[in-house]
Amino acid sequence: MSQDMKREFASREALIAYLREHFPQADARASHVTATLGGRKAALKALQQVEAGKYASTRNFLNGAVTRLSPYLRYGVLSLAEVRDALLLKVRHPEDAVKLINELGWRDYWQRLYAELGKGIWQDREPYKTGYTAKDYSETLPEEIIKGITGLVCIDSFSRELQETGYLHNHQRMWMAAYLVHWRRVKWQAGARWFLEHLLDGDPASNNLSWQWVASTFSHKAYFFNRENLERYSKAVYCRDCPLYGQCDFEGSYEYLEAQLFPNGEKVDRSGGSKSWDRPQKGR
User: Fold this and answer.
1) Phi, psi torsion values for 5, nearest 5 degrees
2) What are the tens digits of pLDDT across the range 72-114?
3) pLDDT confidence of 15, banded at 50, 70, 90?
4) Which of 84, 134, 214, 275 is most buried per CB count within 10 Å?
């Protein structure tokens, strides 16, 4: 581009129109505009709203008190140390902030691994533990997943939310990654590229190594889930409206699903888990 881009706008709408004019190819590829505001002012406002105690107790639920700071951390608008210090100033007892600070530590860990591995984060760090080899997985993302027409309300909703908002809760990311890799047997790299294309907070370090953790190429076991897990942490928001409820791909115990998904995989002891699937199904 021959000249500096304009920086001052009368409104957000004017900014959006300007960017669409100057980047028509990007607009044609994905025309949705996120509601998340960028910049230092918005980042500090989001930081002030963080409640570390509520985060620790509710973060796994889709309606939990997550921070939504990740885009600002991704682009350096906020630093990890700055967030840590702000949390410690807000809590009555330092231990109230431990869980959230631990998560900041994981982000730092991913970045340090990225600095060491470089492009190696696109390569399997270890063999799959699923009983399959890399050549057994597809290189291509299924079109019905991209279009959100699988018929699974949860998966289709995750796909639309990813592409329309640029954000997914961490649990949604794990569920989608597990579905792609283990149920559809797609290489984690294909899913990782798709996420990076749309996530506002997408960076190769956290993204790729988390996908590898799900796939089992950076973990001692594969991550997968069942309907009970999804229903619990989503408050049944998807299951209650799903025409496949009671007969979807995610029905059954972890032992049952493990046998179906990984008949030749490395066995993991999952004794002591919930037995809710043995109870009569309740109404939606």
Assistant:
1) -80, 150
2) 999 999 999 999 999 999 999 999 999 999 999 999 999 999 9
3) confident
4) 214
Give backbone dihedrals phi and psi of 138, rounded to 5 degrees, phi first: -75, 150
Element (H, E) at 165: helix 153-165
Nearest to 216 by CA among 261, 252, 253, 171: 261
Same structural domain for residues 100 and 150? Answer: no
Q: What are the phi and psi torsion angles at 167 (to 5°)?
A: -145, 145
CA–CA separation, 202 and 184 (whole Å): 23
The alpha carbon of 164 is separated from its chain's Cα centroid by a whole number of angstroms, namely: 15
Domain boundaries, position 242: 126-284
Do residues 172 and 77 share a domain?
A: no
Q: Token match 């949860």: residue?
A: 154
CA angle 51, 53, 59 (to 5 degrees): 85
In a domain, 163, yes or no: yes
Whether residue 234 lies inside any domain: the answer is yes
Q: What is the pLDDT of residues 127-167, one digit of tens each?
A: 999 999 999 999 999 999 999 999 999 999 999 999 999 99
Domain count, the chain: 2
Tokens matching residue 88: 């410690």
Are the C-beta atoms of residues 191 and 198 closer than 8 Å to each other? Answer: no
pTM of structure: 0.90
CATH number at residue 50: 1.25.40.80
Which CATH number is 274's domain given?
Answer: 1.10.579.10
